[in-house]
Write a structure and sequence with these properties.
about 400 residues; alpha+beta; 5-stranded mixed beta sheet; 11 helices; 5 strands; rod-shaped; disordered N terminus
């Protein structure tokens, strides 16, 4: 009923109503017995009992009593004064002390409530002894025992309430934490999927469009003097567009790359080298070493994409005449090496990736390799060609890249 008191629940509301009815019933009992026993000052007793009931009934209706300890203390003092007058007139008022204990303990701070209970118990014992014209231990047992029971019940309830509130807060914190974790996981999943799509688009569609652009430029240059060569370049560009369309459809459906369907990784790499040699002024040769071993789809996809990206970079930037692609089975590891005789570059002075100029190839390769627990090294120097080496463990890490899922 105050800011420091526990909030009312359906159970506590029911208990509060029971307390109200108990006080009203005990006051009615005192008034009724005064009338039926034809006691002296019976009319006064009835009037004081009614006044006490009226003062008590006003308290729950006052909003200040529920929000301020000071207002609650003043209301309890008013009820106590009227009750003391009733106790002086009738010994039956001693029973009203029991519900007053609960009110005092509930509405007042712990020390003040305990002092009020002690004072009320002492007044009840003294008043009852005065009406009996004698004092004995039995006279004090009832009010004292009632006070002890009230203290135990109220303090026990408050302890249970505090524990319940603590558990409720822990559950709320856990719920909030789980919601935050779910949101973080969702965000991480979105970012991971975005990275996967970026790598796939770079290694498939972007490289395909670049190849188409190079073929059409070659056709444009050959058109005035060698129309038959221009037609061949246009036909190759058309085939590259068809392949790109197939890659786009499988990218949307998150399927295995078409170059891996119905064949092995070695076969797909050999076909890649043949296609690259046919479409561009580059002789790409494929080599296979070691004993074949089954590979996870994640390994096959990653190595094929890395080879595609490496050869595309060779065609666009290296001005190379030959490129050697080697797939090696090394027991518990698998290695892919792409070596060209192009103009090379300084790996320490690579330009930053740019949406217009590109430069995302090596970043995408490293992301693929790291996702599978492997290593990627690039050795190059101006005028001395480029060598790219990838090694992957045959046993993938516990969490693989989402792109490996069919």
């Amino acid at each position: 009923m105050n800011t420091a008191a526990p909030a009312l629940t359906p159970t506590t509301r029911a208990l509060a109503w029971c307390l109200h009815l108990l006080i009203i019933g005990l006051l009615a009992l005192a008034a009724g017995r005064a009338v039926t026993d034809d006691r002296l000052h019976a009319g006064l007793i009835v009037g004081v009992a009614a006044t006490c009931g009226l003062v008590y009934a006003v308290g729950p209706l006052l909003p200040g009593v529920g929000r301020s300890r000071r207002a609650a203390a003043l209301w309890l003092a008013a009820v106590g004064v009227v009750w003391l007058v009733l106790l002086a007139l009738s010994p039956d008022a001693v029973w009203v002390a029991f519900p007053l204990y609960f009110l005092q303990l509930h509405l007042l701070p712990r020390r003040a409530g305990l002092a009020a209970v002690a004072a009320t118990a002492a007044a009840a014992i003294a008043g009852f002894a005065a009406h009996q014209h004698s004092f004995s231990p039995a006279t004090a047992i009832g009010p004292a025992l009632g006070a002890a029971v009230a203290v135990a019940v109220v303090w026990g309830y408050q302890a249970l309430y505090r524990e319940s509130e603590h558990r409720r807060r822990l559950i709320e914190e856990l719920t909030t934490t789980r919601a935050d974790l779910a949101a973080a996981q969702h965000t991480a999943g979105v970012l991971a999927e975005r990275d996967r799509l970026a790598r796939e688009i770079h290694d498939t569609l972007a490289q395909g469009f670049s190849s188409i652009q190079l073929l059409l430029r070659a056709a444009e240059r050959a058109l005035p003097n060698a129309p038959e060569n221009a037609a061949r370049y246009v036909d190759q560009a058309r085939q590259a567009a068809v392949d790109n369309l197939a890659e786009a459809r499988r990218l949307v459906a998150a399927l295995t790359p078409p170059t891996l369907e119905g064949t092995t990784l070695a076969g797909a790499l050999e076909r890649l080298c043949t296609t690259t040699s046919n479409r561009h002024r580059l002789t790409a040769r494929f080599h296979l070493t070691g004993d074949l071993a089954p590979l996870a789809t994640a390994h096959e996809v990653a190595l094929l994409r890395i080879a595609q990206s490496a050869l595309a970079n060779t065609v666009r930037h290296a001005e190379a005449t030959t490129a050697e692609v080697t797939l090696s089975y090394l027991g518990d590891r698998i290695a892919l090496d792409v070596v060209d005789d192009g103009r090379g570059f300084d790996p320490a002075r690579l330009p930053a990736p740019d949406p217009e100029a590109g430069g995302f190839g090596l970043t995408a390769m490293r992301a693929r390799v790291q996702a599978l627990g492997g290593t990627l090294t690039v050795a190059s120097a101006p005028g001395h060609g480029t060598a790219l080496a990838v090694q992957l463990p045959l046993t993938p890490p516990a969490e693989t890249d989402p792109e490996a899922r069919p």
